[in-house]
Amino acid sequence: MNTSEITNLKPGDALPGRAYAPDNVQNFMYSAALWNAHRIHFDMPYATEVEGYPGIVMSGPMLGDWLTQCVIEWLDGTGQMTQLEYSNRKAAYIGETVTSGGRVLSVDHDKGSARLEVFIKNEAGDVIVPGTAVVAFDKA
Amino acid sequence: MSTAQQQLTLSEPDRKNAGSTDGLLSDDLLACIGRTSAPRTEIASRREIRKYSIATGWKKKEYLDGDEAPPLFHLALFWDMVELDKLTPDGVSIDELLPKFPLEKAMAGGLSIDYFRPIMAEDVLVATRTLTNIYEKSGSQGPIIFYEVVMRVETAAGELVLTEKTTRLLR
Question: Which of B100, B127, B126, B128 is CA-nearest to residue B36?
């Protein structure tokens, strides 16, 4: 975004999203970065036969991170995210492609802030990770 | 009381939710509200930031270079680290802050974070976790226990970095 785009920002404006199709390598690297040994994220027989999942489960907070990427990439250095809320409502599995996105809910031009809706959707179009964020724009 | 300290207290609706002794929550269980972990200190090393940023697929150069941490990096930095014999068979560590709940099937939860300053490379950070609420609600498939944990992250100098409230559901 640039200064002109912030000035003209209005509710309903869309945040560009990204498609994510993590493979086992990325899912492993994410668990390793956290030091998370939860077997549903790397052990297929355990995930499917013991826990009853249809496949290897994408890490919930990795999906949450992709919400923040949607916000930060949209801001593109013009401000900061000051609040984030989200919940993991439904699991996603390795092999699926999920998509991030969002829209502007409200804008306070006097304060230089905006409230955003952000989401991760699965291939069926279900919102599996709904969230909201508040951003504060840098003073021009 | 500072602003951050106020965030650790229960809101009025939470107080009404807490304290129900008609269901699964005993007085002993509710007495655990307010339990706080020992402060944990970690260094936000450039290498750890880089590992996290690469694994999550960030494109922002400052994150990939490890100069500044992405917004959810603190989840990795303060993820529980225990010895092998402290892991359960499913590879999960037992959260020592939590009491034993009468329901154990963990369901989806939520996260709410207030940011006060970014995490920069080589910041020395201190995290303290507090169990701030336990309450019960009736669900269509039976009772659900909710619990909330607030993590407060400060610099070693005491500057507030973020507060995070995690809500978890047990069925």
Answer: B128
CA diameter of chain A:
56
> Residue B115: which domain range?
3-170
Query: Is B112–A34 a contact, with Cβ atoms under 8 angstroms apart?
Result: no
Give the pLDDT confidence of B101-138 residue by residue, as tens digits: 999 887 768 999 999 999 999 999 999 999 999 999 99
What's the gap between Cα A2 and its chain centre? 22
Matching residue, tokens 């002794």: B21
The full set of domains in chain A, from first to last, is: 7-21+58-137 (3.10.129.10)
**Domain harbouring B152, CATH code:** 3.10.129.10
Chain A residues whose C-beta sits inside 8 Å of any chain B C-beta: 20, 22, 26, 29-30, 32-40, 43, 46, 50-51, 60-62, 64-66, 68-69, 72-73, 80-90
Q: Does the ipTM surpass 0.90? A: yes
Q: Would an 8 Å CB–CB cutoff place B147 in contact with chain A?
A: no
Q: What is the pLDDT of residues A59-94, one digit of tens each?
A: 999 999 999 999 999 999 999 999 999 999 999 999
- What pTM value is reported for the model? 0.89
Q: Domain count of chain B? A: 1
Please state, in angstroms and rounded to a whole number, the distance separating the CA atoms of residues A110 and A3: 14
pLDDT of B33 above 70:
yes
Q: Which amino acid is at B141?
A: Q
Selected for mutation to probe chain B from A72, A83, A84 (highest B CB count within 10 Å) is A84
